[in-house]
Amino acid sequence: MSFKMAFVAAAVAAPFVLAAPAFAVDKPVDFVTKAGEAGLFEIQTSKLALQRSQNPEIREFAKHMIHDHEKAATELKHVAMKDHIRVPSMLDHDLKGKYNDLAKKGDDFDKKYVHLQVDAHNDAVNLFTDYSQNGEDARLKDFAGQTLPTLQMHQNDIKAIHDKMHLVP
Fold first, then answer.
1. Which DSSP string corresponds to the chain?
2. pLDDT in tens, 101-117
3. Do residues 42 and 138 make contact, with C-beta atoms less than 8 angstroms apart?
4. CA separation for the pair 120, 56 (Å, rounded)
5. Which of 1, 49, 69, 128 lies at a C-alpha separation of 20 to 30 Å from 77?
6. 132-140 — which CB contacts under 8 Å span 24+ positions?
7. Whether the predicted pLDDT of 143 surpasses 70
């Protein structure tokens, strides 16, 4: 294949490759890993928010995150155990870096926390929507579908806090 033909083929294929969502997972182990890490990240960053934030709305949101995501983590472990899949107990390198970056924030902690939670909930809603519709494991699909409304509520709540703080995306 000539360079020109390869370039044209790559240019034609690029929109389709780039449009494939990064959160799309069909395999049970991939879903459990991503969902487990996402929940853990939201719990850990929310515990940090309870220590650092003075904003009552952020503190209340953080309390809900800890409660709801610990509950979801317990349910995920129960469902995943039936398939002999281990739920992560540590953050991956990327999420650990985001956590460490948040932990270093001073005066702009609230702003960074809110941005991270908006992004995390957008990703989680996409992940759980995708798996509830396309996942391979019926029990995990049910878990994703049952958990999705809570994630969507969190997504709406954090977007409202974001908008109230007049933050730019």
1. --HHHHHHHHHHHHHHHHHS-TT---SHHHHHHHHHHHHHHHHHHHHHHHHH---HHHHHHHHHHHHHHHHHHHHHHHHHHHTT-PPPSS--HHHHHHHHHHHH--TTHHHHHHHHHHHHHHHHHHHHHHHHHH-S-HHHHHHHHHHHHHHHHHHHHHHHHHHHTT---
2. 999 988 899 999 999 99
3. no
4. 21
5. 49
6. 134/24, 134/26, 135/25, 135/26, 135/28, 135/31, 136/26, 136/27, 136/28, 137/28, 137/31, 137/83, 139/79, 139/82, 139/83, 140/28, 140/31, 140/32, 140/79, 140/80, 140/83
7. yes
- Which CATH architecture describes the domain 24-164? Up-down Bundle (1.20)
CB neighbours of residue 5 within 10 Å: 9
Quote the Cα angle for 105-107-111, to 5°. Answer: 75
